[in-house]
Request: fold
Amino acid sequence: MTTTPRDLQIVALVLTMDTDPPRPVDPGDLSLALAGAEVIDLLRAGVLAVDGDRIVPDDRDRRAPADRLLDAAASALVRRAPHESVEDWLWRRGRGLSAAYRAALTEEGLLTRKRRGLLFRTGRTAVPSSSARAHAADRWASGEPVLAALAAAAGMREAPAGDSLSGTDDAVVTVLAAVNEAVVELEGVRQRRSVEQAAFDNIWRGL
Reply:
C-alpha cells in the first residue's frame, strides 16, 4: 500500500542514498513531517477530524488503514476530550518515526544493501526499483502540493509557491502549518544545545 508517509520516507532515502552528491535529510525534521503525513492520510481516510488544532478520532466510522504503520498511528490517537493538539501529536508520535518507517521498508525489501567486493562484504544502502519507489517518484516529480509541503518542512526541497495549496482542505493546511512550526522549534532546541555545549567546552578549556 502506498501512503503519504511512505512516499515521503522513500523520497528522503533516495535523496540521501541514491543522489549524487547525496542530500542528507535530518531524521528529526523528517520524523515530524512523517507524523504530520500520518494525520493527513488518516484525515482523508475518515479516521479522524481536525477541530481547530485538536485531533478528534471518528469512532463512528472506524476504517482501519491497510498499512500497519498507519493503523498503529490510528490506534495511538487520544480518544478522550479535550483530545490532543496537532502539535502534541507531532512531538509524541514523531519520536523515532523515521527509523520506524525505515525499518518497515527494509523488512519489506524496499530498502536493501548493495553487495560489492569480497564475499560477505556489503556496500551502501540503496532503494531498489519497485512500484513503491515509482509511485513516490511520480508524486515527487509532479510536485504534488501536500507531499511537496511536507518535504519542504523537512528540508528536502524549497518551499512550494504560496498558492500551491489553494483549494486544499483547511484541516490539511492546519496540519502542514503545525509541522512547519514544530520543525522551527526543533531547530531552536538544537541551537540552544549547541550554545550550551560550546559554553561548557569553554569552561573546561579555562580550567
